[in-house]
Amino acid sequence: MSRQTTELDSAVMKHPVYGPAAAALLGMQQFQAGNTHAAVQQLQSVIHGPELIENNPFVLKYLPSASYDLDIAGGVIVRLPLSKAALTLILAEALQSLQRVSEAIQYVEQLDPTYPALLSLTELYSERHDWEEVLRLTDRVAVDSEMTAFLSILRAQAHLELGQLIAAKECLKPLTASKKFSENLRFRALVVRSNVSLEEKAYGRAVADLEKILAENSQILGINEAIAHINQAKHEAEQSKLASAAAQAAEKNRVREEKAAEAQRLREEKAAEAQRLREEKAAEAQRLREEKAAAKLALRSTPVIETGVISLSDDSDMEAPAATDEQTAPTSYAAREAGFYPDPEGVAPFRYWDGEAWTSRVRMTK
Known about the structure:
Blueprint: H1 10-13, H2 18-33, H3 36-47, H4 57-62, E1 67-73, E2 76-81, H5 84-97, H6 101-108, H7 115-127, H8 131-137, H9 146-161, H10 165-176, H11 183-199, H12 203-216, H13 223-301, E3 310-311, H14 325-328, E4 339-342, E5 350-353, E6 358-363
Parallel strand pairs: 3-6
Antiparallel strand pairs: 1-2, 4-5, 5-6
């Protein structure tokens, strides 16, 4: 179909038979030419018309084998016969290019389930980042064609976005294990797998997948920039790892220093406590020595009194001279005869004088 647009007479556009056919053809032509807004208006007028375009007499008579090659998603081109379903898919692509994704989804969800409709709807939900819905739509879809292969790529991307890395790699295996699919799909699969490896911090594998693309086609745009980005991410990760290791080493060193300081403090406290106890013991010993010395000094200063057994008997067996006034109050004990006399020391009433000195014999009565 030519990319040049055609202007039709208003009378043709209003005709009940020719009008819808003309609007359908014009809408497809406008979309192919990039006149998206005009294409949306023409396609909507046909889709919302009273009759299916495939039942239009003009189409049945003059365009029974008419078709349209639609690039639904990721370079997957589907040849569609002229029908309401085909016009709806073209309209969805036009609305998607206008960022009217939700409106496009509403149109596609009204279609009967076919692989082209499934691929279009899955790609629309993927653009809206509704990854759970992408997984729901692509459940149990076998990879056996270009369309299902691209569905598997979209499913892998959904797993990747949800952090399910192993599942993402499993979805890509049928596309990366051989070259039976188109270069476009294999390269897309390798890019997704590279992103999975990058998420796993496996920088070498991430670069290797991109270099596989360069090995087949070095003219693919953006691959060298992606490799440079991965290498930069690897460098930053290594620097971050070194900084983290340095921070951990510094933290360990700080902890060791704190432990050493605490141990030193405890040793100093223990030594100080031991010194205090030694000083207290020394002071106590000095106090005891001083008390003992004071006691000894006190004992030396106290007059020693020789004491003996106090006899309560009247010493009848001993002869005692009769006491006279002169004898009871002698002027000198040296002139006295032996006998009991008033105790000069006051320990007992009477003490025995042996004629030369006081003895230890005392008595209570004379």
